[in-house]
Amino acid sequence: MVHRLRRWCSDADHNNTGIIHDRGSSMSIETVYWDELRVGDVVRIGIGEQFPADIVLLTCDDPSGMIFVETMNLDGETNLKPKICSPTLRTALQQNTAAASTLEENILNLRAELHYENPNSQLYKFQGQLLYHPCRTGRQKSAVLRGWRQQ
Predict the structure, then answer these.
(1) Could you report the per-residue pLDDT of 125-140, keeping only the tens digit for each?
(2) CA nearest 30: which of 40, 22, 38?
């Protein structure tokens, strides 16, 4: 019973954590709670912040398009794992940012569609397909899970 109460409190803490996100075509950036995130929302994650949901990386600040995540919350491992942004999508976002006033606006104007599997218990497997114009791209290394922390 005590374990369930602790788990409920931990879940409540996570769900009440704020995250910066864009929703729909509003082109506004606002801070919302984790439990208010919906499929299709675009979130910005900073160094040291946990991912609020299972997400697909669109772009990052690193020139190589790679980030490193800590997965200790899910698998107990302390070594960092590399995750890669889709090269096709990342290049398109960077090229089109010159025409848009901000990267956020460019992301909101992006014409892409993501098809993915239902949630499951497999931490190291992600099946999905990201459709961007005629190009198709989808990489297992582009997916990051809720609870991981960017390093």
Answers:
(1) 888 888 876 444 455 5
(2) 22
The pTM of this model reads 0.65
The residue whose two tokens read 């019973």 is 1
Could you write out the three-class secondary structure of 55-111? Answer: EECCCCCCCCCEEEEECHHHHCCCCEEEEECCHHHHHHHHHHHCCCCCHHHHHHHCC
Evaluate whether 89 touches 58 at the Cβ level (below 8 Å).
yes
- Return the bridge partners of 83, or none: 67
First to last CA, the chain: 35
Please give the Cα distance from 38 to 13 (Å, whole number): 18
Cβ proximity of 18 and 117 under 8 Å: no
